[in-house]
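== Polypeptide entry ==
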Amino acid sequence: MRILVVEDERALAEVVAEGLRDQGMAVDLARDGLAAAAKLDFTVYDVVLLDRDLPGLHGDTLCRLISERADRPMVLMLTAAGAPGDRVSGLTLGADDYLAKPFHFPELVLRIRALARRRPDARPRHLHAAGIELNPVRRTAVRDGRDLHLSVKEFAVLEALLRASPGFLSAEALLEQVWDENADPFTNTVAVTVGRLRRKLGDPPVIATTPGVGYRIG
């Protein structure tokens, strides 16, 4: 799941981003509305966490622009303006949900996952292939009745491969979906993570690799 956090308060933005990364999400940051608009032109996001009072381009204006996009992500307004009238105006602008600061972080995570499931192109909650069952909401993965104890990144890679199944995902696509804009495309991070995941999935092998194409469950 790819998330864009648009927040001009650096400390809060970094805390939120690190917390979401710990939940297996790929997170990019933008400190103002103009930077966020530029990122939206180059990356497809599942959810945007949007502060309203932004420099450069106000959050209300950015929300309207997002709502008009063909590939629009879901928008969760995350702002100190939490009065009922503020929530109504935010939702009227095109936001899909509204959470006032200060907030309870577990609630934020649940709201993000709920919004991602509401996207028009969202896949089923439970993913199945090759004897593997994965529940992204409960963060559980099982193969042939055996619990899989996966790291955050291993779980996210498996989820991405299952969502793409029976198709392939390139290493570049996995970097984009599982890591974030700070990931070095020239490292072997994907190969190392897939290798660890293969070992934990056990025999018979279920992750196929085609050089120059990518990885798939099959």
About this structure: Helices lie at 10-22, 33-42, 59-67, 84-92, 105-118, 152-164, 171-178, 189-201. The domain at 127-217 is CATH 1.10.10.10 (Arc Repressor Mutant, subunit A).
